[in-house]
Amino acid sequence: MVVEEELRDFYDIAIVIPTLNEEAGIAPTIQSIKEAIGTKFSYKIVVVDGLSTDKTAEIARSMGAKVIRQRRRGYGDALQVGFYYVDTKMKTAVTVMIDADGTYEPKDIAKMADIIISGDADFVIGNRFANMDKDAMTTVNRIGNKVLSSVARRLLKIKVSDSQCGLRAFRTDLANIFYNSSLGMPFATEMLTATSMYHIRIKEIPTSYYKRVGDTKLNPIQDGGRILGTIIRLMRDTRPLSFFLSIGLVMIGIGAFFGIEVLLDYLKTHTVGRIPTTILSVLLIVLGVQTISLGLISDMIKNKNYDKRIFFSE
């Protein structure tokens, strides 16, 4: 991650904006943020540029934003670069992330900051479905986002209605738990999983969501598949007992089903005549028991590695 000159000025809020060829949206976004926050909080806008080929960085710099460059590509990497810069080169109470395409309402930034500064929560996320414009999201994207949020709630126990919302705020001293995550879109889910693992107080608030400015860079099928894969991987890593127990019980159930057929056949004929089925039944039951045992061991290792307390840097 690249950071530039030393900054030690204190701000109430640092606003991180990931960008890649957002020439059309960056100026309105920055201007809207300035108008929305006004003088209520001191703030600094940090634009993370993903090697744009248009004038995104130039426009952001001319409007007073701090512009830093990514070495790699990806939405998740851009946010981690921004968080790292704020965490190590600035002194801020709250870090906010927001997109540069005009989809989010900058007035919600102050609401989120108020919640964190008042101590009511450590992490605040928006719920786009609470006040979404009719044309802000396609039907496919809307359904996909709701499905992913529902799966995340059930498998990862993330108690939010919109797990993919890109408007979030958190205490800056929590930034280090979000490093070393996915470089792409799955980062949004990994952030929420981290808050759950470290028992961080999270609050969801209704937020507006508008049609984006400029062309979208999302691929609903590809990005949705990656996020779903990440959710399954995170369940394996963060809730291993539930993950392996489910798989193990399915194996045992199938093995028992075949085993009952063999047993009934044996009671009638007094001979074991279905050798392949018998072997398959025993194999599935043994594998199921071993899988559950793996879950128990993984759960013990996980509980040892994740301390229930949160340690903050001073």
pLDDT average, as an integer? 83
Element string (H = helix, E = strand): EHEHEHEHEHEHEHHH
The biggest sheet amounts to: 7 strands, mixed
Q: In percent, how helical is the residue content? A: 40-55%
**Shape by Cα distribution:** elongated
Strand order of the largest sheet: 3-2-1-4-6-5-7
| CATH level 1 class label of the largest domain | Alpha Beta
User: N-to-C terminal Cα separation, in Å?
Assistant: 22 Å
Query: Mind telling me which CATH architecture of the largest domain this is?
Result: Alpha-Beta Complex
Query: Which fold name is given in CATH as the topology of the largest domain?
Result: Spore Coat Polysaccharide Biosynthesis Protein SpsA, Chain A
The parts where pLDDT drops under 50 for at least 5 residues are 1-5, 306-314
Task: Give the strand tally.
Answer: 7
Radius of gyration: 24 Å
Name the structural class.
Answer: alpha/beta
Tally of discrete structural domains: 2
CATH superfamily of the largest domain: Spore Coat Polysaccharide Biosynthesis Protein SpsA, Chain A
Number of helices: 9
Short synopsis of the structure:
With 314 residues, the chain is of the alpha/beta class. It has helices at residues 23-37, 56-62, 75-89, 107-117, 139-156, 187-197, 220-238, 240-269, 275-305; strands spanning 10-19, 43-49, 66-69, 91-97, 123-132, 168-171, 202-209. It is elongated and about 85 Å long.
